[in-house]
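debug: dumping io for the single-chain case to check the tokenizer round-trip. Nothing else runs in this session.
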Amino acid sequence: MTTPDTAAHPITTDVVIVGAGPCGLFAVFELGLLDLKCHLVDILDKPGGQCAELYPEKPIYDIPAIPEISGQGLTDGLMAQIAPFKPVFHLGQMAEKLERQANGRWTLVTDTGTVFDAQCIVVAAGGGSFMPKKPPVPGIDDYEGTSVFYSVRRMEDFRGKDLVIVGGGDSALDWTLNLQPLAKSLTLVHRRNEFRAAPDSVSKMRALEAAGKIRFHAGQIKGLQGANGILEAVEIEDSEGGVAALPCERLLPFFGLTMKLGPLANFGLNLERNLIPVDTEKFETDQPGIFAVGDICTYPGKLKLILSGFHEAALMSRQAFRYCRPNEKLRFEYTTSSSSLQEKLGVQEPKEAKRA
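debug: decoded output
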């Protein structure tokens, strides 16, 4: 489930997982079998990481016992598998600060001000954080966060505004369709008349254009007009070199994503070539209580495969349990034979129900 966030009170949990890709999702399953509660933070607006964002329809052939599955199919299966454990997702947020408390627990803060109080942190961020590709426009940094946005976290923030959306992919077209009913005016800008988005989305956008509800300009953004972070207009250059100024209070450039380590580099962890070294017994970093699984971690013989990340998550969960439940005995059980695990997964009736 997804929850609204507030910085008024820290969210207390056993584990915070940074990254909601396949390895982060499977970590929820392994931790859940041990009764550890998880919150997940991801900069994307949906779970699945690279699988869901970069190749949702591309087939994957090396998941054990599944000859072929799409990136989105794998994500959907993992989400169904972890549903019994009710993880809480904090999407569209980046883990920004991490500090150890005097009692050994960790405080993690996101860029939106969400604060977590957790016993363990699991970094499952793939190759790092997805970062937006910025248009090469002079002075654009001065408007970021006030008038220029690379994602939509709250649609209401754009109500009654003159919007300019730039891009020709699914994100640009989807948000054109979703924000049009809220906007005072909306202009879509793309360097050519052809789009990379789903044909249905393009058809709906063309219908809105024909009805006069949006405007479309073929061209490229070249300049910004405004001051003190408040945007007033954007300058668009067409294919013949002509420049026109369009009224704009909010600019949404959707030029795709790139992978960067981002704030993880400032977490105080030992790094090797932007990867996090871990041991192969617990997949723990050099900081007790912080773990790393998936493509972000490194060790001798490491293979960057999803199945390897699943294995890493299983071993990580054992040590996380020792931190979170120091006074409880760690038991090893198989889901095929353990009635208690099957009860947690909802595949067996509770003992009380059976006796009744």
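debug: round-trip ok. Residues 306-324 form the longest helix (19 residues).
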